[in-house]
Write a structure and sequence with these properties.
Layout: E1 16-20, H1 26-32, E2 38-43, H2 46-61, E3 68-73, E4 86-92, H3 101-111, E5 112-123, H4 125-134, H5 136-139, H6 151-160, E6 163-171, H7 176-185, H8 193-208, H9 211-224, E7 227-234
Parallel strand pairs: 1-2, 1-4, 2-3, 4-5
Antiparallel strand pairs: 5-7, 6-7
Helix pairs in contact: 1-2, 4-7
Length: 239
């Protein structure tokens, strides 16, 4: 399940790509499909890094990796890379977890080359707010979401770090009712038939990608999209 639309990005051979908070490596693996690139998936969770590496080794084994890849355990607040060394940075569903999001954004901007792209996604404001309203356990979960971003506030945060917005979209509208239902019955419960059935439907949709559900999701994303996705460029330094 990709949040980033790679077709909007000019990924070329020789590019270095950083996937911050890579989790199980879905965006790292998608980037690794481009020939001649180098992609690094970074996450502070060792178990997530193991899952990402497992996914990438699998993709490599079936011939889907045409670029080079690496996974690395590191924290977004202190990335182990030099200044301006990446041509594309992806930060998907990460900033809402960060106690100091301003410092995190500054670090992201530091490692990105001037004139190159950053993609940031966060939970969309009103679907996330309803999840918080429906479930105290959801909003107080350890390692969970610390804030809800309004689009304008997120844009100002990123603009202040020297980034200019050039596109946006919303994603995963079919997942929004699932999370509302899960929060309504309790996010920790695993015995609810409706929730389990909806989850099986989402997995089936992810694997089969039927045209009807892909069309339905595209139509519903502007209204129900669970994720807000922003595309930005780093402004060149002033002479």
């Amino acid at each position: 399940m990709l949040t980033v639309d790679f077709e909007r990005l000019d990924v070329r051979p020789g590019h270095r790509i950083l996937d911050i908070g890579c989790g199980s490596g879905r965006h790292t693996a998608a980037a690794a499909a481009y020939p001649g690139i180098t992609v690094i998936g970074v996450d502070r969770s060792p178990s997530a890094i193991r899952e990402a590496a497992k996914r990438l080794f699998y993709h490599q084994g079936i011939g889907l990796c045409r670029g080079r890849w690496q996974t690395l355990a590191a924290d977004i607040g202190a990335l182990p890379f030099g200044d301006a060394c990446f041509d594309l940075v992806i930060c998907s569903e990460v900033l809402e977890h960060m106690p100091d999001d301003q410092a995190a954004v500054a670090e992201i901007a530091r490692v990105l080359k001037p004139g190159m792209n950053l993609v940031v996604s966060v939970p969309r404001c009103y679907p996330e707010a309803l999840c918080w309203a429906l479930s105290r356990d959801y909003r107080s979960a350890k390692g969970g979401h610390l804030r809800i971003y309004r689009s304008g506030a997120l844009r100002r945060l990123l603009t202040k770090a020297g980034l200019t917005l050039w596109a946006r979209h919303w994603a995963h509208s079919l997942h929004t009712p699932y999370w509302w239902l899960k929060c309504l019955v309790g996010p920790g419960r695993a015995d609810v038939v409706a929730v389990n059935g909806y989850h099986r439907l989402l997995v089936w949709d992810l694997m089969r990608k039927p045209r009807l559900s892909r069309l339905l999701e595209r139509l519903l994303n502007p209204v129900l999209g669970k994720s807000l996705v922003l595309y930005l460029k780093k402004r060149p330094p002033r002479p």
